[in-house]
Amino acid sequence: MDALAACRDALKPGEPVGGVFDAYARVCDAAGETPHRLNACGYSLGTTFAPNWMDWPMFYTGNPVVIQPGMVFFLHMILMDSDAGIAMCPGLTVEVTETGNQPLTRHKLELIGR
Asked: I need a labelling partner for 111 at 20 to 30 A (CA). Which of 32, 65, 86, 90 fits?
């Protein structure tokens, strides 16, 4: 959840999209997860057509697209351990506001137990 919080902190108007990925990578790398993280951590949501489910721009290092209010993004914090055969991917869809971003879900991110 720390990586997701860092991404949300970086996702604000006037900042480059690549900075969101850099926030994700910093947290994952500090936790020793470099070999298990991806080189992207989300993408814009708009109108797309099969076979693609993602819109541009994506969150990857160096992406210079400037974040603007009204943009909608899906943030995914994928970690995969191929040797162990496990993966996890908490994610959140957010809309960029004038001052930051807000989730577009009413559900919390905590795991739900029975």
From this structure: 32
Tokens 């991806």, residue located: 38
Global pTM reads: 0.86
* 7 touches 93 (CB < 8 A): no
Amino acid at 6: A
| Average pLDDT of the chain, as a whole number | 88
Mean pLDDT, residues 8-37: 96
CA 18 – CA 57 distance, rounded (Å):
9
Going by C-beta distance under 8 Å and a sequence separation of 6 or more, which residues neighbour residue 107?
A: none
Domains of the chain, first to last: 2-103 (3.90.230.10)
Average pLDDT over residues 78-92: 88
Other beta carbons within 10 angstroms of residue 105's beta carbon come to 10
Instruction: Say if CB 4 and CB 88 are below 8 A apart.
Output: no
Q: List the Cα angle 101/15/63 in 5-degree steps.
A: 110
